[in-house]
Amino acid sequence: MASLALTLKERLKAERQAAIEAFQADGQPERLLVRLRQNVDAALTQAWQAFGMPSSAALVAVGGYGRGELFPHSDVDVLVLLAAAPDRALQAKLEELVQLFWDIGLEIGHSIRTVDECLTESAGDITVQTSLLEARRVAGNRVLFQFLQDRFRAAMNPQAFFQAKTLEMRQRHAKYEDTPYSLEPNCKESPGGLRDLQVILWVAKAAGLGDSWRKLAERGLLTPTEARQLLQKERAFKDIRIRLHIQTGRREDRLVFDVQTPIAESFGFATTETRRASEYLMQRYYWAAKAVTQLNT
User: Fold this and answer.
1) Are 266 and 281 within 8 A, CB to CB?
2) Mind listing the pLDDT tens digit for each residue in 234-270?
3) Which of 235, 251, 237 is closest to 289 using CA atoms?
4) pLDDT for 213-225, tens place per residue?
5) CA dihedral (187, 73, 102, 110) positive or negative
6) Could you tell me if 139 and 83 lie in one domain?
7) Of the residues 110, 128, 155, which one is the last residue of a structural domain?
8) Strand ranges (DSSP E) for the chain?
9) What is the per-residue burial (b if ≥16 Cβ within 10 Å, else e) of 237-262?
10) Is 229 exposed, middle or buried (0-12, 13-18, 19+ CB in 10 A)?
11) How many domains does the chain have?
12) Domain residues for 29?
């Protein structure tokens, strides 16, 4: 498997660089996130097939990867879904598979569970429940994955989920001093950031109301103008987060002082006699964060 690991690693590296260069040319964040996800999907599927995984199992993307988005240096969270607890031989094969995922250059977060174990973990951990809410089959048994989806939806209590996510959000806001106006904000976790928008969509999806701003507008929960504005804010945060990852070469979501100017310049902002380029960037960020914060209060 060493040759397979090297082949997949080199291919993923080349594809990531090509996707980043395309983004730098066209400035389309959604296109980059989908392209990176598709590249990883293909590599994981090839690895899954090469290992001859049992036809009764499924490889499932969860979390942000399950949502269908991958930032340049994001973790790749996967669930190996089994029909029954693995025997010793299968457990050994699974360990080798996960090691291969690491060897090809991915920051893998993984779990190996049966459907019953998924539901038990989900019932006791809001983080697991949220990650499964965005589960997406990558490879393997479709019927088993659908069985998980059906049982997960049947077990979902939208009101309890809403209360848990609201508490979680308040605790997260307190950690970031309950303000979107930090001098070095975290574009993902700070109040008014990308996570707050995701919470709205998670709660809506858990309640069966839709998983996009467009669908919420179609149901009359948002006006078309509100949906369009929210999409614009979400796109702005994604754009900034992508540029942070590219600029720092790692999973970095904080707009610290050292990167504010190069990020601003990547957007085309320039320093003038009266304002620094970074000021234009932060004004844009605070404008979007304020709008999201007002929506969540």
Assistant:
1) no
2) 999 999 999 999 999 999 999 999 999 999 999 999 9
3) 237
4) 999 999 999 999 9
5) positive
6) yes
7) 155
8) 58-61, 76-82, 108-114, 136-140
9) bbbbbbbbbbbbeeebbbbeeebbbb
10) middle
11) 2
12) 2-155
